[in-house]
């Protein structure tokens, strides 16, 4: 969905969504009460229209109520031989008449609820159609407009005279006069076009060329996904931000001033009518995008059956099916089992508890820069003290935190390979100097560290962890809450390393935005807890499970993952360009489409840029229409987590905006006009 326009009255014009089809059928019945029922669009027709040509279907919404709409198709149009009827056009719900390569946008209808007429909604719909013309490079709009005023006067004048009088401005027709005012040019009177006595079956062939402007249409917006109508935040957004500040605690972070009204795919639409490209993706929750149809339908269908009988009370299909699915797709050929929780932190806690129970040991080894959650245990495992941990201690005991090679900050005088060797020696030495391996229950690691700054763990370092775990009977836990579920271009990040962990934790994109997390792994470890020792009231909500089943089945498809990798290639190339152009960019890195840019004050010394300077870049990007957020141990990085369904041209537009934000802030700090 690319079109979203807020009208001054607070109404919204946007592309039609499937759930609106029943309302559209009702609207047709209201707007065209005398039209023969055989020629009226039904709900099934509207669904087919959306499948065939989503770019050309628009609605006007008052809240969630459809108060106006238009449906269109593409055709090759021969104006010299106009002999079709409306029945010809809608045959089979456009299955036979829609031509995907057609060079004209054919408007089949425009309907506005009676109490909303006279407020410019029809013009707004024609403006949306004209932007579709410009966006798709078509020759213009063509339609056959009804002349609803003719039925009342047909006994005293001919249709030709009526048509001529309206065109010359001597007669006012509620529809045709409005269309002429929009800019349509009349071409011919069509007899027996449709079966409706209100116009005695007459219509007028009308054309609006691509060279014509329409009030409310923007050529700039038509060629862009971003649509900015106000500053960010706008007036409605500021009101809601103020309400949030009054109602919610000050410690609740807020990365941007975006206030969401709707979202679709890779786009966010705010309460002031602005459209943003989303590069934050709910901090990596939205691999399949905002509100994907299959997930929305699965949620709706499941909620209509039952919402939450609780897995501790009863058994239900969605829980079992999702567990089977994760047991199938996670790495490893051994027998596996899965348990569900509400969040990534809960998944990590379950993985730690099961590791301790299975091994009979207490110590957990984690790594500097790691982020594993905000509960007491997972916060104890988490690094980045000042932001996440300050004042919240004391923390859980029996945790050993070890350094990890950050290749960007390889010490001077060392090669990257030497630094990895040194890191491995530190790891091995810790099992002598800090903890006996026979006391270690688990080693937990993110294959790509998230909050630390999208640091892919060096392959030899990760392999050595696997070897040490196997050698000493330690459980290896791969925390893939952020880097899993397609985020790196493979279903799981460990697949890049050809390493199989004993347990793997997933969340975020697993649920397509629904609160669900999982621990999947070796059945003997998963079965080690006593009866009743694991589980929780909300873990494995059937509604969340239904969403996750759809999400996993989408993400696991080869075409989906191939597109994700292609997005990663585009990001890699664009971000390498930033590094070449802007001295403030110290490093760009990541794995696949999980990418990050790190800012520095001095490239040679790699001195981190200040959090405030990084925040300025993020704010500049958001103000220009792209949602981003910071990351990194020094809060000097911007992470990019676009929904993996994002079209390549949308991604490129967003990357251009972020690149420009870096340039603007860099020049500002250098004292050079942007």
Helix-strand category: alpha+beta
Q: Uncertain regions: pLDDT < 50 for 5+ in a row?
A: none
Rg, nearest Å? 29 Å
Assign the CATH topology of the largest domain.
Aspartate Aminotransferase, domain 2
Distance, first to last CA: 32 Å
Question: What is the strand content?
Answer: 15-25%
Number of helical runs?
Answer: 21
Number of domains: 3
The number of distinct β-strands equals 26
CATH class of the largest domain: Alpha Beta
Strand arrangement across the biggest beta sheet = 1-2-3-4-5-6-8-7
> Any idea what the CATH superfamily of the largest domain is called?
Type I PLP-dependent aspartate aminotransferase-like (Major domain)
Mean pLDDT: 94
The residue fraction in helices comes out at 25-40%
CATH architecture of the largest domain: 3-Layer(aba) Sandwich
Shape: elongated
Task: Specify the biggest β-sheet.
Answer: 8 strands, mixed
